[in-house]
Amino acid sequence: MAYDSTKETQEHIANVRYFLSRMMFELLCRSEDHDASKLQSPEKELFDKFTPLLRDTTYGSDEYKRYLKEMGAALQHHYEVNSHHPEHYANGIYGMSLLDVMEMLADWKAAGMRHADGDIRESLSINRGRFDIDDQLFSILENTVKELGW
After folding, report:
1. Is the bond preceding 42 in cis, omega lying within 30 degrees of 0?
2. For 68-79, what is each residue's pLDDT tens digit?
3. Is the pTM for the entire model greater than 0.90?
């Protein structure tokens, strides 16, 4: 009798579903906790002050960078407690997991929506240099933005 791969294929499909579900659960947890530190001291006070100022700037501009610098310790604290920021890791984006990268991309999209001239593709280009994103990861990020219709 010839081998029938149905059972093994069904087990494989079940395993993939399980692992994708684990990843989706982790992303769901991250979505619930995303940027919660901005709602407490030492971050809240400075985000209350700088969020409206940043909204009126162009992402990556000299004015934008100056505001980030002025946010100082609060922004540093934010990076320290939120792993979806490359600044969280000593080796930047190279220390991140795929889940960190997925949350980061969603964060970049949402952050761009706060600016009158925000654009995820422009943010990707700026962040490519800012975070030393290599060609392969940059292409993956671009492809994801395109696939999601952002």
Report:
1. yes
2. 999 999 999 999
3. yes
Rounded CA separation 88/30 (Å): 15
Q: What is the dihedral of CA 70, 76, 81, 85, to 10 degrees?
A: 80
**CA–CA separation, 128 vs 122, rounded Å?**
10
* Number of residues that make up the chain: 150
30-131-61-67 Cα dihedral, nearest 10 degrees: 60
Nearest alpha carbon to residue 92 among 36, 135, 133, 120: 133
First to last CA, the chain: 52
Q: Could you tell me which of 126, 129, 131, 141 has the C-alpha nearest to residue 59?
A: 126
> In degrees rounded to 5, what are phi and psi of residue 129?
-75, -40
